[in-house]
Amino acid sequence: MNPVILFDGECNFCDSSVQFIIKRDPKGLFHYASLQSEAGQELLKKYDVPADLDSMVLIEKDQAHYKSSAALRIARRLQGAWKLCYGFIIVPSFIRNSVYDFIAKNRYKWFGKKEESCMLPSPSVRKRFL
Questions:
Q1: pLDDT at 67 over 80
Q2: Would you state the pLDDT for residue 53?
Q3: What span, in angstroms and rounded, lies between the C-alpha atoms of 79 and 81?
Q4: pLDDT tens, position by position, 110-128
Q5: How many Å apart are CA 64 and CA 77, to the nearest integer?
Q6: Rounded Cα–Cα distance for residues 68 and 66 (Å)
Q7: N or C: which end of the chain has fewer CB within 10 A?
Q8: In the 3-class helix/strand/coil scheme, how is the chain assigned residue by residue?
């Protein structure tokens, strides 16, 4: 199974992050589902992800990764110098996650929330969404 990224479908920052990943994932390794979707909800239950978790989730090799660990594991699979970000994995998770939590807590205030519109991906990208 390809790695799956679960993201907040109502968040502009999260949507931009998915677009960023898609552009740097030319082989189409990652698949995507919004946390609010039926597929997203099923995966959250299957991997016992806490209901109150405010994070992007990466499901990879039958394991769920959250917060900064998910972001860094995604970065190491991207094209270009983004792979180097994975080096931050050596920073203790409580430090990395405090930065992640600060951004997550303020993301709607800083970047806004989606109204009703959403991007219309190309057919090749669309098939990567669950």
A1: yes
A2: 85
A3: 7
A4: 988 876 555 556 677 777 7
A5: 16
A6: 6
A7: N
A8: CCCEEEECCCEHHHHHHHHHHHHCCCCCCCEEEECCCHHHHHHHHHCCCCCCCCCCEEEECCEEEEHHHHHHHHHCCCCCHHHHHHHHHHCCHHHHHHHHHHHHHHHHHHHCECCCCCCCCCHHHHCCEC
pLDDT tens per residue across span 30-52: 999 999 899 999 999 999 998 78
CB distance 33 to 39 below 8 Å: yes
**What are the boundaries of each domain within the chain?**
4-126
CA distance 96 to 110: 20
Give 10: exposed, middle or buried? Use CB within 10 Å, 0-12, 13-18, 19+: middle
Calculate mean pLDDT across residues 72-87: 96
The amino acid occupying position 88 is F
Sign of dihedral through CA atoms 93, 95, 9, 30? Answer: negative
